[in-house]
Design a protein that fits this description.
The complex is a heterodimer.
Chain A lengths: L4 E14 L2 E14 L3 E5 L6 H8 L7 E6 L2 E2 L5 H11 E4 L11 H6 L9 H14 L15 H13 L5 E5 L7 H18 L2 E6 L2 H4 L4 E6 L2 E2 L4 E2 L1
Parallel strand pairs in A: 3-8, 3-9, 6-7, 7-8
Antiparallel strand pairs in A: 1-2, 1-4, 4-5, 9-10, 9-11
Helix pairs in contact in A: 4-5, 5-6
Chain B lengths: L2 H9 L3 H28 L1 H4 L5 E6 L7 E2 L1 H6 L5 E9 L2 E2 L6 E7 L1 H8 L3 E2 L2 H9 L3 E5 H7 L6 E6 L10 E12 L8 E5 H7 L6 E2 L1 E6 L5 H11 L7 E5 H10 L4 H30 L1 H10 L3 H36 L12 H28 L2 H6 L2
Parallel strand pairs in B: 5-10, 7-9
Antiparallel strand pairs in B: 1-12, 1-13, 2-11, 3-5, 3-12, 4-5, 4-8, 6-9, 7-10, 8-9
Helix pairs in contact in B: 1-13, 2-11, 2-13, 11-14, 13-14
The chains are: A alpha/beta, B alpha+beta.
Chain lengths: 231, 386
């Protein structure tokens, strides 16, 4: 981990209007993530974890405040600029894997590379490397429906890292897995952080999952409620 | 992998739905190809009508005769190049159901007026001219009955009888003619007027109508007026019209076949529009979450829009091309069927072009709403749907 700030949230507020009611999720939230961090964000349902993840992932915009990534402001980018930015900088891992059912494992992993200028040969090479890293080289041609939950999540991890993003955002990555498989997945994330220097931000309900992170933040009603824990 | 591959995999992911929608489109374009070719063949006479040809018939009705002397008189009208005469013989081969469109003509003038349409070996034509019992047979008729040059065949008339009381005439096949245009009709035969006139038991020295070739289409109006004025206030007044108009009115007597065919085609495409539109909307709705994931990964909304539209086009074009391809074989089968009564049914370039335009239109209409929905889909909303 370096001291360089990768992500910086400055006075971020997020409000929703539901009927006549205005719901405030965050009000003047400040937060920064250093490059190479493995950060877990915990909190009860409705605390704003997913909204925070959406803001960090550039799929949602704050009502006010600024979001800086790698010294560039990203909250004011247009939708198409954000799409390009996400493709180049962020890898996503979802709770329910969100793989494309009509594609086999390696095609799923290749998907983000369609957004790059890599040749077919280079794409194949990158896919093979990612598949090897998650230990699924022998199942590359399998349809994801033929795989277990743990294997599907490993395919999702391979998809998240194949384009070599700076940041990996994980939304309850072990929420749909048994303990043993969850530990395997979390160890893999830890390895990506430790050996490959990936910055990882993980939202989770699971306290034991959070122990794999270097730092944990607790969110409640849109605020970080207690001092951060560092492992 | 490419966007095209992704679109293709999405299209075939629900095999049954893909097959059913593909099949519906396939049938619609098969019908379109076959029925449009049928309509075109029906109207081929109109389309192939020469601008410098006129038809002169009895003003009362074209089934009423005109005196043979009119031919000679009409030939004197200024602006006319040649005049051919026709009598409807009402022929059939062995049985009444084996109808043969038989015309009694003057061999000396037939080619002078219709030489641009009829293709025949000169030597054969000369042979026919010399033999009064000779018959010139269209290729389509010869193919149906297996006739060849040198055969002697009987033809019966269901209108006329011979002076000996029989209704059977014997003819020597002197030549088989083809057409200079693919869709020109070769479903007829020509016999000598002289032989017919001399042997029939009633109605001699009359003709059915005249085919007239003018020197220049610009003279048509003038020639028409001169002919009809010439025979005005006589027992056999004429009505002379351009050949195209005559053929059009003849087709119109069969009923508005074009309208019926267009209605059938329109109805089938409308149903396709509903089926494919619904199917596409459903398919995209089912994939809301996946579209959200793709957008999250960095696929732009515009790119997703194009992919959905491409899927719709791919479906329509796959079904459409398969339908047209099958229509070509189907028409070929019909053309080779014995006793098929129409000129060759051809899936011409203009029909194919029309079909492609319809495919583009259908692809756009059925794909645009799902594509716009996908374009506007909010990532957070999409990801929340599983």
């Amino acid at each position: 981990m370096t001291d360089k700030i990768l992500y910086d949230l400055r006075g971020v507020s997020k409000e929703f209007v539901k009927g006549k009611e205005k719901i405030t999720i965050f009000d003047n939230l400040n937060m920064s993530i250093k490059e190479g961090e493995f950060l877990a964000i915990m909190g009860p349902s409705g605390s704003g974890k997913t909204t925070l993840l959406n803001l960090l992932g550039g799929v949602d915009k704050p009502t006010s405040g600024e979001i800086w990534f790698n010294d560039s402001r990203v909250d004011n980018l247009s939708e198409s600029q954000l799409a390009k930015w996400r493709a180049g900088n962020i890898g996503f891992i979802f709770q329910f894997y969100n793989l494309m059912p009509m594609l086999n494992a390696e095609r799923n992993v290749e998907l983000p590379l369609l957004l790059t200028n890599l040749s077919s040969k280079q794409r194949k090479q990158s896919v093979a490397t990612a598949m090897e890293l998650v230990g699924l080289s022998d199942r590359a041609k399998h349809m994801t429906s033929e795989m277990s939950g743990g294997q599907q999540q490993r395919v999702a991890i391979a998809r998240a890292i194949v384009s070599d993003p700076k940041l990996i955002l994980c939304d309850e990555p072990t929420g749909d897995l048994d303990r043993k498989t969850a530990d395997e997945i979390l160890s893999m994330l830890q390895l990506l952080n430790r050996d490959f220097g990936k910055t990882i931000l993980m939202v989770t309900h699971d306290p034991s999952a959070a122990t794999y992170a270097k730092r944990t933040l607790h969110l409640d009603k849109g605020e970080f409620v207690e001092k951060e824990l560092t492992t | 992998m490419s966007d095209f591959y992704l679109v293709y995999k999405n299209l075939i992911r629900k095999k049954l739905r893909f097959f059913l929608t593909f099949f519906a489109i396939f049938i619609a374009f098969l019908m379109f190809g076959a029925l449009t070719a049928f309509d075109k063949a029906l109207n081929a006479g109109v389309e192939l009508s020469a601008d410098n040809r006129l038809v002169s018939v009895n003003k009362i009705n074209f089934t009423q005769p005109l005196p043979i002397s009119y031919v000679r008189k009409v030939q004197t009208v200024e602006g006319i190049e040649a005049v051919a005469q026709f009598n409807w013989f009402g022929g059939y081969y062995k049985e009444p159901r084996q109808q043969v469109m038989t015309f009694a003509v003057d061999p000396a003038t037939l080619l002078a007026v219709y030489g641009d349409d009829i293709a025949i070996d000169e030597e054969r034509y000369d042979g026919w001219q010399k033999n009064q019992q000779g018959i010139l047979v269209g290729k389509a008729v010869a193919d149906i009955y297996g006739w060849k040059v040198g055969d002697r065949i009987p033809l019966h008339s269901n209108i006329f009888s011979k002076r000996d009381g029989s209704s059977s005439w014997a003819f020597d096949i002197e030549g088989i003619f083809t057409a200079k245009y693919p869709q020109a009709d070769t479903n007829s035969v020509y016999i000598h007027y002289k032989y017919f006139n001399e042997t029939q038991s009633f109605g001699g020295d009359f003709i059915g109508w005249m085919g007239i070739k003018t020197v220049d289409p610009k003279l048509n109006e003038q020639v028409i007026k001169a002919i009809d004025d010439m025979f005005a206030n006589t027992p056999y007044e004429t009505e002379t019209v351009p050949e195209k108009a005559f053929n059009q009115s003849f087709i119109a007597q069969l009923g508005n076949i074009g309208l019926i065919l267009s209605s059938v085609v329109f109805a089938s495409f409308f149903i396709i529009l509903v089926i494919v539109g619904f199917s596409m909307a459903l398919a995209i709705r089912e994939r809301t979450n996946e579209i959200g994931v793709m957008k999250t990964l960095g696929f732009s909304s515009l790119r997703i829009f194009k992919m959905v539209l491409m899927e719709s086009f791919m479906l329509i074009f796959l079904g459409g091309i398969a339908g047209l391809f099958t229509a070509t074989y189907f028409l070929g089968f019909l053309n080779n069927a014995p006793q098929f009564p129409l000129p060759d049914l051809i899936l011409s370039n203009d029909i194919i072009l029309k079909a492609v335009i319809i495919m583009v239109f259908l692809g756009l209409i059925t794909g645009i709403i799902p594509a716009v929905n996908a374009l506007r889909l909010n990532i957070i909303t999409a990801l929340s749907r599983r």
